[in-house]
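Sequence only, no structure available. Ideas?
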Amino acid sequence: MKKLILFTFLWLHAYYGSCQALQSEKGYVKFFSSALIEDITAENHQAKALFNPETGEAVFLIPIADFEFNKTLMKEHFNENYMESDQYPEAYFKGTISGYQKDATKSEAVAEGEMMIHGVTNQVRIPGEIIHQNNTLLLKAVFQVALEDYDIEIPKLMFQKIAEEVEVTIQFEFQNPSL
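Reply:
I predicted one. C-alpha cells follow.
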C-alpha cells in the first residue's frame, strides 16, 4: 500500500509538473485532541503537496510516523495502538481546491475530494483560505476529523484522555516566480 501511494504521488507530480503545478516539500500539519483528563497536540513538518492553481487539482501526502509529541510515550502509543503506522504509513488528500483568485491577496477556498487516514477513504469538503503574497501561495485550513470515520478505535479505558474528534490544522506554502 505504501508503495502504491508513493507511486501515485510521484506520478501525479510528474503529470502536474508539466501543467504548472506548484510543490510544497515541508508542509505543516497539526492535530489537537481536547479530552477531560489530557490535551494532546502533535505536529508534523514533513507533509508534501502538489497544487495546480489553473485546474484546482491538489494532492497532500502526510507521513504518519513523523508526527512529533511532547512525550515520547504518546508518540509510541499513537503509532502502535491508534494509527498503526507500520500498516498505514501515510494519510492523503486527493481532489480539487476551488476559490483561488490569482489577483486576490486572500481568498476563501474549499477542498473537495478523497481523504484517506488509517486505510479508510472518505469524501470530504474542507473550508480554508488561500493567501497570495508576492510569489508565495499559502493554503490553510482548520477542520475536525471524527476518529470513528476512519476506524481509529479508542479503548474504553482511554475515552477520558482521547477525544472522539480531533482538530486538524494544515498549512502548505508554495513558491513560484510566475504567481
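The radius of gyration is 17 Å.
Hope that gets you unstuck.
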